[in-house]
Every structure is written in structure tokens, then in C-alpha cells.
């Protein structure tokens, strides 16, 4: 228990050579964490989930930076990136990813996305295959519209946006984890600081647009969308994901022509954080195949 309680973002990064900074991505100020050699031709983008931020990947930067120029960034409307005052749909996130790629200057990237990040990654790979090497869809969104899950996520997020108290932010983070003890004081404070920004309540309402049934419906990934993804794909799921069952992951993997499935036991919506070593091993094995 003590090992869990006294972990911190800094301890996750202390042995990692990394940079934090901001760049202009298609006109949006975008905050990032970057590890690895910028001259490495192998490029990897890490895309977080709804109301998340780049710290979702602090436990993964070192391992992936040994093989890639790896770039985790805050989506528009999230973290410390620019916060547009309009509802955010998948096309907006795709344009942001294109802006990041163009700002960094490489033509092709591997991509790993969690939840909203996986939804964006899947649609990006379908619509811009020329910019993609391989993709990992980590407990991805976009194929299900469970009203109870959507309402729970919306309520927890909006309550924490209106009142970013310790307990409300803690409750939002606990939704992500199979083991609530993984929500450490440091992680709570990292997210609380983001939620305390003066424009966060507005931003949260904009980035929660995909929880609205009609908005979600027009952004959903159809079976034909999944069949159209031609790049190599890893569908990575967990046995305790709160957003949907492993059977949904199996269905997604069957539909994508060049996909395989991996399942991590005893993890929730953030396997990259809860089961770091297993996640890193599985993802790197896939991303480096045929390299």
C-alpha cells in the first residue's frame, strides 16, 4: 500500500530524459511532454482520454522513448492546451492531431490512444492512412453509446468542473481505475490544478459534447468505418474497463482487417498507468514488430 500511496508524477519521470513545452498546432497552443531522440525516425503520438491530459502517460515515456521520438500532448479543450469555446467533436480532434504532426515535421507516426484518444486514433487512421504507421486502440471510445455510462461520466466531470474539490476530483479519477488505491494524492492534485483553471468549466462542457446522445450518434465509429482501417492495429482492452466489456473489444478486432487483440487483467480504463510494465511490454512488442 505504501508503494502506491507515495508514488508521484515526478517519481514516474525522474529517470526519464524528457522535455515539457508548448507548440503551435494548427493555430492552437498545445502543451506536450516529449521523450526519446527527436531525430529518431520512429515517431509515436500518445493521445489521452476525455478531460485527461499528458500525465496519463508519465509512466510510459521512458520505456517508449528508448525506441521512439514519443510525444504526449494535451488535446484542445484539455489540460493546458487552448480551449475553444465551441463543442468539440471528433473532426476537431483530428484537425488538432494533424496540426501537431505538421508542427513536428514528420510525415508518418504510430499512434496510441486511450478512450477518446483511441476514438480519434481509429477515425484518423481511417481518414488519413498515409500519415499512420501502426495504431493502438486502448479501451477506445466511439463504438458504444451506453446511456448509463455516458450520464455517469458527464455527471462526475461536470461536478468536478463546477467544484474542483479534492473529493470530486478524486471521484472522477477513481472512475478510471480498477483499484481506487491507484488514485494517489499526487495524481489528484495534478488534475485538480487543471480543473482549477478559470476557463475549465466552459472547457469541460465543450469537451463533454460527445456525451450528448445526438452529438455522439453523428460521431460514432460504424462497422464500415472499422472495416476501412487498413493499417496494423492492436485493440487493447481490460477485464475491468468501466466503459464496456471485453466482448466489444473482440468485435472491434474482428472488424478491423489487420487487427489483433490483447487483454490486460485487473485493470480499468487506464491500463498504461495501472499495469504499466505489462502495458509497455504488449504495446512495444506490437509497435516494434517488423521494425
CATH topology: Rossmann fold
Q: List the domain count as a whole number.
A: 1
Determine the mean pLDDT.
Answer: 95
How much of the polypeptide forms β-strand, as a percent range?
15-25%
| Spans where pLDDT lies below 50 across 5 or more residues | none
Give the helices and strands as they follow along the chain: HHEEEHEHEHEHHHHHHEHEHH
> Quick one: how many beta strands?
8
**Any idea what the radius of gyration is?**
17 Å
Helix content: 40-55%
Report the total helices. 14
Q: Could you walk me through the main structural features you see in this protein, from its secondary elements to its overall organization?
A:
There is one protein chain. The protein is an alpha/beta fold. Helix content is 42%, strand content 18%. The chain has helices at residues 2-5, 9-13, 61-65, 90-104, 116-127, 147-162, 166-174, 185-195, 200-207, 213-219, 223-227, 246-255, 271-274, 276-287; strands at residues 18-25, 28-35, 43-47, 69-73, 109-114, 132-138, 233-238, 259-264. Strands 1-2-4-3-5-6-7-8 form an 8-stranded mixed beta sheet, with helices on both faces. α3 links the parallel β3 (43-47) and β4. α6 runs antiparallel to α7 (166-174) and α6 runs antiparallel to α9 (200-207). The longest helix has 16 residues, at 147-162. The radius of gyration is 17 Å and the shape is globular. It starts with a helix and ends with a helix. The model has no long low-confidence stretch (mean pLDDT 95).
